[in-house]
């Protein structure tokens, strides 16, 4: 399947959240070198922008605004074009996520089984809002649009681990087990 925006082949969103925090993020010069290496590896790939953005976020934990120009230059795109793609896809973040990332599925099946209430409970238990990171950097809370567990809704993912048929009580237990309950 082809992405109409970039002309590239669509790929599944990686299920591994970044575990980079502001304190552990590489310095800007290291970020620039990392990005230039990634761009060089993918520059000749048709529709290279999405694979590059995924690789940058995997390497740095986010796509810092200061590297958007390097990506744009390497692909002969404008900064606005690159920023437009970053801001369009909810998977991409421009600020580092928490050490733990909790994703709550928001697809139709999970919503029908209580995902909205589960998301509200997660925000309360984790101490951060949706698309937010707690002040201590311990945890981020993000919506995700289908974890593929529709028959076992509602579902969440913590790090790279899936949890099915999650109740608010079970979510509280998971958060306590991570040491991130507010």
Report on this model:
With 182 residues, this protein is of the alpha+beta class. It folds into two domains: 1-96, NADH-quinone oxidoreductase subunit E (Arc Repressor Mutant, subunit A); 100-178, Glutaredoxin (3-Layer(aba) Sandwich). 40% of the residues lie in helices and 11% in strands. The chain has helices at 28-42, 49-60, 68-75, 79-88, 108-112, 115-126, 168-178, and strands at residues 100-105, 132-133, 139-144, 156-158, 161-163. The chain has a five-stranded mixed sheet, covered by helices on one side. β2 and β3 (139-144) form a beta hairpin. α1 (28-42) runs antiparallel to α2 (49-60), α1 (28-42) packs parallel to α3 (68-75) and α3 packs across α4 (79-88). The relative contact order is 0.14. Residues 1-6 and 9-26 have low confidence and may be disordered.
C-alpha termini separation? 42 Å
CATH topology descriptor of the largest domain = Arc Repressor Mutant, subunit A
Major sheet attributes? 5 strands, mixed
- How much β-strand is present in the residues? 5-15%
- Percentage of residues assigned to helices: 40-55%
Q: What is the arithmetic mean of pLDDT?
A: 85
Number of strands: 5
Helix count equals: 7
CATH top level of the largest domain is Mainly Alpha
């Amino acid at each position: 399947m082809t992405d109409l925006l970039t002309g590239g082949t669509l790929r599944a969103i990686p299920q591994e959240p970044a575990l980079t925090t502001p304190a552990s993020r590489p310095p800007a010069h290291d970020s620039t070198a990392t990005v230039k290496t990634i761009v060089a590896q993918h520059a000749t790939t048709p529709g290279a922008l999405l694979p590059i953005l995924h690789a940058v976020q995997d390497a740095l934990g986010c796509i810092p605004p200061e590297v958007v120009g390097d990506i744009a230059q390497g692909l002969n795109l404008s900064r606005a074009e690159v920023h437009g793609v970053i801001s369009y896809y909810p998977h991409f973040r421009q600020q580092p996520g928490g050490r733990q990332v909790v994703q709550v599925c928001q697809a139709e099946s999970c919503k029908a089984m209580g995902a909205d209430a589960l998301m509200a409970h997660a925000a309360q238990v984790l101490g951060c809002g949706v698309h937010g990171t707690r002040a201590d950097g311990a945890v981020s809370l993000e919506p995700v649009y289908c974890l593929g567990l529709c028959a076992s809704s509602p579902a969440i993912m913590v790090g790279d681990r899936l949890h099915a048929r999650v109740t608010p009580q079970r979510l509280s237990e998971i958060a306590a087990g991570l040491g991130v309950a507010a």
